[in-house]
Design a protein that fits this description.
CATH class: Alpha Beta
Mean pLDDT: 89
Structural class: alpha/beta
Strand order of the largest sheet: 4-3-1-2-5-6
CATH superfamily: 6-pyruvoyl tetrahydropterin synthase/QueD
Helix content: 25-40%
Bound molecules: zinc ion
Low-confidence stretches: none
Number of strands: 6
Number of domains: 1
């Protein structure tokens, strides 16, 4: 008996590709009442989920190497070994000092909570690759996942933000 497997390609034939990343980053939560108001660090784990539907003749939807390059070039090289602060009055002196010392610093109008970070990462990546989800682990037991609908609901606070700074 011969078994034939036919792979049909159609619009509903979607697959999700996941690629994992890791980076070290420090932050503090402005106006937070608790330990997280102090500068401290995490080993973050980031999983990027991508929507794909078509396979090429080799059976590849999207090259993992390409995903790695896009995420490294647009996210990891800025967040790794950096301090992500809210650009606020409370952080003014610290920001001034760190800029003078040419430290890696990320400034946003909002705190670098896992939720805000995941939305920011979505904002930067969704113009470049077919995003499905962004999952960010702040600790091994705490993570957030954001999708297109979450981003659409939150994007007013994130518009036009891009990473820049010391490499
Ligand atoms: Zn923290």
């Amino acid at each position: 008996m011969m078994l034939m497997i036919i792979l049909k390609q159609s619009e509903d034939n979607k697959m999700i590709i996941y690629k994992d990343f890791e980076f070290d980053m420090a932050h503090r939560l402005d106006e937070y009442n608790g330990l997280c108001k102090n500068i401290h660090g995490h080993i973050y784990k980031l999983t990027i989920g991508l929507n794909v539907s078509k396979l090429d003749k080799l059976g590849i939807s999207i090259d993992f190497k390409m995903i790695r390059e896009v995420v490294n070039e647009n996210i990891i090289k800025y967040v790794d070994h950096s301090l992500w602060l809210k650009d606020s009055k409370n952080n003014e002196k610290l920001i001034k000092l760190l800029k003078k010392e040419k430290n890696r610093l990320l400034l946003t109008p909002y705190n670098s909570t896992a939720e805000n970070m995941a939305l920011t990462i979505w904002h930067i990546l969704h113009k470049k690759i077919p995003m499905y989800t962004v999952t960010l682990f702040e600790t091994p037991t705490s993570r957030v996942t954001v999708n297109h609908a979450n981003y659409e609901a939150a994007k007013k606070s994130i518009v036009d933000f891009e990473f820049s700074g010391e490499e």
